[in-house]
Each structure stands twice: as C-alpha cells, then as structure tokens.
Write a structure and sequence with these properties.
The complex is a heterodimer of chains A (437) and B (288). With 437 residues, chain A is of the alpha/beta class. Chain A folds into two domains: 238 residues, 3-Layer(aba) Sandwich (Rossmann fold), CATH 3.40.50.2300; 149 residues, Response regulator (Rossmann fold, 3-Layer(aba) Sandwich), CATH 3.40.50. Helices cover 40% and strands 19% of the residues of chain A. In chain A, strands 2-3-1-4-5-6 form a six-stranded mixed sheet, with helices on both faces. In chain A, strands 8-7-9-10 form a four-stranded parallel sheet, sandwiched between helices. Chain A has a three-stranded antiparallel sheet with strand order 11-15-16. The termini of chain A are far apart. Chain B has one domain: ABC transporter involved in vitamin B12 uptake, BtuC (Orthogonal Bundle). In chain B, helix 9 runs parallel beside helix 11. Chain B contains eleven helices and two strands; from the N terminus they run ααααββααααααα. Chain B is 74% helix and 3% strand. The chains are: A alpha/beta (437), B mainly alpha (288). Chains A and B meet through strand 8, helix 8 and helix 9 of A and helix 1 and helix 10 of B.
C-alpha cells in the first residue's frame, strides 16, 4: 500500500513537471503585420518596404553563432532605415523590414519556415540561416520558389553545385579555407617542401584538407602525412609522433575549437620540430590565448577579423569598386548597438545585408530578376573583403572573390595578440616564421 | 622504420597504460567483491576530472592536491551511491544491478550536463617536457603514471595486510561465512564500492592533468576499463593493472603501423577474442 502511494506521488510529480515544461516552451513568434508593406508603398508612391526573410537559431546548438549573425543583419537593416533607406534613380525610397523565426537549429524547421516566409510573409529577399547544414536545407526552398537568397555563415561548397541559380554565398567556401596558407608558406619559405595534414574526421574539415592537399601538391609540396582523427580525440600523442617521424616541416589541419586547441597544446608540449602550424577554426577564437606559450606562433584562417584593413584605397589598387562602411565604422556601430565585440559571424550577417543593398542600388530596382543580375555582376570590396560570385552553370553563386584572412598569435609587450598576417593587403603584422619554439 | 618513432610511441602508450589500469581496477574491484557491473563508472571518472578542475579554478588548489581531493570525494560518493542505489540489488539478478547503476549514470550525466554544460574544460597546467633520446615526454604524464602505479601498490598492501582489506577479501570469498564471524558485511560492501569509486575518480583526476575533458568524457574510459577488466580477468585488480598496460601499449603501437583510428578496432577485436577463447581473462577472474 505504502509503495503504491509513493509510486502515485512520483507519477503525479513527473506529470506535473511535464505539463510545466510544455507551458514554458517558447512559442515561435507569430508573423508580424504581414503584407501591409505594399499598400503603404502605393499610398506614398515613393517608399517601398521590402521584407527580408530569414531564420535564426534562437535555441539549439547553433544559438550563439547564429544569434551574432542575426545581430549583424539587424544592425545593417536598422542603419539603412535610419539613414532614410536606399534611394533609386526614379525617386523611390527602399526600406526594409524583417520576417524571422526561430529554426531551433533544426533542418526540418528550416524548410517549413522558409516556405512560410515565402508564401505567408511574402518575403522579397532571403538571408540564409547559420551553418552549412541549415543553409543547404533552406537553399532548396529558395530555389524552388525562385527567391534570391544571400547565404552567410555557410562555407560548404556543395550547396552551390546543385544547379541553384538564386543562391549567393558571402563566405569563402571550404575548398579555399587553407589554400591561402599554402600561398603564404610558399612566400615565407621557398625551401619548405614537406607538409603534413592532420584533421578532424568531419565533413567540413575533410572537405577543407582534401582541397588544400590537392592545391599543395599542385604547388609542388610533398604531403608526407595525411591522416584524420575522430572528433573526440584528446590524446594527439600518436599523431605527433607520426608528424615527427614523417619529417614534416609544416602541419595543417585541425577541425574545431576543442580538438584544435588540444592539438596545439600537445604539439608544444612534445616540442614537435615543425616550422609552421595552421589550424582550422580554433586559432581565431579569443579563448585560444588561454593556451599561453602553446598558442604563440599558431596560424589560423578566419572569414573576417576586427583588425583587417580593407580600404577604399586597397579597392582602387585592385581596380574594383568599394562599397559600404569601413571596418572601424562597422565595429563601432556594432559595439554601440550590442555592447560586445563583433565576431566574424556578426560581420558575415552584416555583410550579407550590405551586399543586398549594393545589388539593389546597382540594379536601380527592387525587381528580383534585376537584383539577381546585379548580384551576378558584383565585383566589389567591402569591410568584409572582396565579394564576387561564380556565374558558371556548375557552381552558380559560389563565392570566388572573398579570401580567408590568416591570423597568427604573436606577442606584444609579453601579451599574446592576434595579428593578421595574410593576405598582404589586409595584414597588420609580419608573419613570424619559423615557429618560435 | 625509425627506431626513435617506435620508442616514442611505446613510452607514450606505456605511461598512459598505468592510468587506464588504475581506472579499470576501480571497475573490476567492485565486480570482484559484489558482482555488480558498475555502469556509473564513466560518469564517476568525469566527476573526478571536474573535481580537479574546480579545485584548481575555484579553490586555487594545485592540480595534484585536487587529485587527492577527488580521491577522497570518490570514497564518500561511492559509499553514498552504494547506500542509495546499490545495496538493494546485491545478490539480485545482474539486470537489476545493471539498471540501478545505469540510473546513477543517467543522473550524474543529466545533472552534470545541466550544471556544467557539455563544453570542454582544460586545466591550465604544465610541468614542461623532458627529452629522452628520440622521445619528448611531458612530465605530467610521467607523474600520472607513477601516481597510478603507487596507488595500485598501495591497494595491494591494503588488501593484503590491513584489517579492512582482509574483511573485503573475506566478504568476497563468502559473505555468509564472513557475517558468521562478525564481519559487518554491508559496511564492507559499502566501503568496497567507495574504494572502487575512489580509484575511478582518482584516475579521472590524473587524466584531467593531461587532457581536456567534458562531462561526457568518462564514457571513453569506461569502455576502456571494460576491455581492460575482461583482459585481466573480471574481478582481478592486479590483472587489470597489467591489462591497462597492455591496452596502453596497443594504443602506442597500433598507430605506428596503421591509421590511428584503428586503435579501437584492435582493442575490441582483442576484447571479443578474449571472451571467446579465455573468458576468465589472461590472469583468471573472480572465483565463483
């Protein structure tokens, strides 16, 4: 009897908890004032309010990076609207409003929500969610409805090789994440011959190193080691022993933050005699400095860094147009708006807006077909870097202008600081080579 | 093949082997005494890591003092787990004890993930490295191996020569007979569970001084502990130490000849082979 009572009590409590959770669950925001835009535009005849549709991962594993990306995009929108919108030659003023939902970091939600954005919220232009996975899911919908979508926070190449004609990538694709590093090494040391690739066995890192390996071989390097490690590896001892044995002079690879920083730390502890270490993802993160001396000299690719120096003058030298705010202006506005330093995710979100704005201005129209044509013709330098899209059938929309910047942890007055060392036009310091150990 | 490469790999593996061994002793001891397969072994190892981490970051303790603290915490935690979840299922079918310890596992993982999140932690700590011929070895690894070896030796002497050690062996042999001569068997079992948990948390603490970790990290070492325990004979602590060294050497040597990802394949093939050919392990298991 007593046991029965306890069981009933536990059951009741559990039920109560479940009901409580259900209630507390955040509901997706309802579509805010739907079409209004068009009628308003007709009334004033001069002003058009375009709806920018996107999803944000407010919940789920992508929430931090995705949130920053959305913040960047919203900042752009607010700035354009506050500055009085984009003025077209016929006197029309173009302003923007957003339609957005929480995609819960889930692919399934993304497809539902982008359909909803297009069919119910009548979004005029789309911006991608964060991450390659979610973007791939949303791209299918954008293409199906022939809506122009600018993707950001998505580096995968494969999305642009599906024959889509309406999707345009802001990020440097994975296939070129490390190729700049090869160029950089070539310039730093023409005698360097042997390189090792040690990388995380994940889709992203594998795609990056495969492309980099092909490029390195093309450039005359000997790839003496090419080996993957499982994502949860904590002991890199066996890999480091292999690197030493192979006689590699440079190590490229890594995958994500955790494994990359561990790898760097153990390379240092085991005094691996290599001249350069280039790792994905981990080095640009500010937390990487916690490794102390093990971080010193480590190089990593980044889509954007606060200290990069792309300027109108650099644009002139390259013979292309400059558009949008300077890096300092963007950082200042972002910090004023959100009280935090922008990451490259934030910059990517903002850049997506800037490019859309640029295309509308160039097209001198809000007609999607004309904007699409303007995007295809885009060849411009912004605070985020060079933006130019592939227009071939095989890889339409793939980013071919933007280059990764490479940062290296250096020391200033005994303090570790991140410096941009490549490409030369954006560099803030000379590359330290060979690796000081 | 470069001999230096072989040596470096061998030394790396051997040193880790001692630490794997001491983790496995924790698992095998509990099975030996009360025939309970402790599925909470992994999370407890992770708790050992976190104890060292918080001792260092919050209390400012030296990581090795943290390892000591984590061992003591382990003893108390083990007794607590025994009292709450294990004592009721002693002598019951294996499924009951598997479920009971698995629940403890889920609770620790659940609470741990909620409180600590699954983000990786790293203890900022380095003793530098020494170079012996071809091998450069981080000093922390040597310290961890020596500490693990000393713990195993201490356990041996404890079991052989102390009153409570003898109690444990008596209860292991025959609980009823031990009761008849006045040994408080329930307390002895609680203490044994505490001892096993203590070794698990101790090994976790040592691992935390070498590698970064998350709350889920224990699972990896739990699996290794199973392989090692079966290799050395389930219920045989000293067999587990040798098993640990063998697994360590496999981890060191396999990458010399094969891609490193083959290590697990080799380990589990060995696991299955031992189960098929010599189910009592290399050194004989618990007499039952």
């Amino acid at each position: 009897m007593k046991r029965l009572f306890w069981m009933a009590l536990v059951l009741a409590l559990a039920l109560g908890l479940l009901v409580g959770c259900k209630k507390a669950e955040p509901t997706a925001p309802a579509a805010e004032e739907a079409p209004a835009g068009e009628t308003q535009a007709q009334a004033e005849a001069q002003e058009i309010v375009l709806t920018i549709g996107f999803t944000e991962s407010k919940t789920g594993k992508l929430n931090v990076s995705s949130g920053r990306q959305a913040k960047g995009l919203r900042l752009w929108m607010k700035q354009v609207n506050e500055a009085g919108g984009i003025k077209l030659s016929d006197g029309t003023v173009v302003k923007f409003k957003e339609a957005s939902y929480d995609d819960e970091s889930s692919k399934d939600r993304v497809q539902e929500l982008y359909t909803k954005l297009i069919t119910e919220d009548n979004a005029d232009f789309l911006i991608s969610p964060y991450s390659s996975g979610l973007t791939a899911a949303s791209a299918v919908i954008a293409e199906q409805y022939e809506k122009v979508m600018i993707t950001t926070g998505a580096a995968s190449d494969s999305i642009y090789k599906q024959g889509y004609m309406h999707v345009f990538q802001i990020y440097t694709p994975a296939s070129r994440y490390l190729t700049g590093a090869i160029d950089m090494l070539k310039e730093a040391d023409p005698n360097l011959k042997k390189v090792a690739f040690v990388y995380e066995q994940a889709k992203f890192a594998t795609a990056v190193v495969k492309a980099a390996k092909a490029y390195a071989e093309e450039q005359g390097y000997e790839v003496v080691l090419f080996e993957g490690y499982p994502a949860d590896t904590t002991d890199f001892g066996p890999f480091i022993n292999k690197i030493v044995e192979s006689g590699a002079e440079a190590v490229l690879g890594g995958g994500h933050f955790q494994d990359g920083s561990t790898f760097a730390r153990q390379l240092y502890e085991k005094k691996a005699p290599v001249k350069a270490v280039v790792l994905l993802v981990a080095p640009p993160e500010p937390d990487f400095a916690e490794l102390g001396d093990a971080a010193y000299g480590i190089i990593g690719p980044s889509q954007w860094e606060p200290q990069v120096k792309f300027t109108p003058e650099a644009a002139k030298e390259l013979g292309i147009e400059w558009y949008g705010p300077s890096n300092e202006e963007f950082i200042k506005a972002y910090e004023a708006a959100y009280n935090e330093e922008p990451s490259y995710h934030s910059a990517g979100g903002y850049a997506a807006g800037v490019i859309l704005e640029y295309a509308i201005k160039k097209a001198d129209s809000v007609d999607p077909k004309k904007v699409k044509a303007a995007l295809e013709a885009t060849d411009v330098l912004t605070f985020f870097g060079h933006i130019k899209f592939d227009t071939s059938e095989e890889a339409h929309g793939l980013q071919i202008g933007h280059e990764m910047v490479y940062i290296q942890w250096q020391k200033k007055d005994g303090q570790l600081v991140k410096e941009v060392v490549w490409p030369k036009e954006g560099a803030t310091a000379e590359l330290i080579y060979p690796l000081p150990r | 093949m470069d001999m230096g490469f072989l040596m470096a790999s061998l030394i790396d593996g051997l040193l880790l082997g001692f630490v794997f061994g001491i983790a496995a002793i924790g698992l095998t001891l509990i099975f030996g005494v009360m025939e309970v397969i402790n599925l909470a072994h992994g999370p407890v190892i992770a708790l050992g890591m976190f104890t060292v981490y918080f001792a260092a970051t919050l209390l400012g303790l030296h990581p090795y003092a943290g390892v000591g603290l984590s061992a003591v915490t382990g003893l108390l935690l083990g007794i607590l787990i025994y009292a709450i979840a294990v004592q009721r299922v002693i002598g019951q079918p294996h499924l009951s004890s598997l479920l009971a310890t698995y629940s403890v596992n889920m609770m620790i993982i659940g609470i741990g993930t909620a409180v600590f999140t699954a983000s990786p932690r790293n203890i900022e700590f380095s003793l530098g490295s020494i170079t012996l011929g071809p091998a450069t070895i981080p000093v922390a690894r040597i310290v961890a191996a020596v500490a693990a070896l000393l713990a195993a030796v201490a356990l041996y002497f404890f079991m052989q020569y102390t009153r409570w050690g003898k109690f444990i062996r008596a209860v292991t042999d025959n609980r009823d007979a031990a009761e008849l001569v006045g040994i408080p068997s329930n307390k002895v079992l609680a203490f044994s569970f505490g001892l096993g948990t203590m070794l698990a948390m101790f090994s976790g603490g040592l691992i935390a001084t070498l590698f970064p970790f998350t709350i889920l990290e224990g699972g990896k070492y739990e699996l290794k502990s199973f392989v090692i325990s079966v290799l050395g004979g389930l219920g045989n602590p000293m067999g587990a130490l040798v098993g640990g060294i063998i697994i360590g050497l496999i981890e060191g040597l396999v990458p010399v000849f094969l891609p490193t990802t083959w290590v697990l394949v080799v380990e589990f093939v060995l696991f299955v082979l031992i189960l098929l050919v010599r189910p009592t392990g290399l050194f004989g298991g618990r007499a039952s």
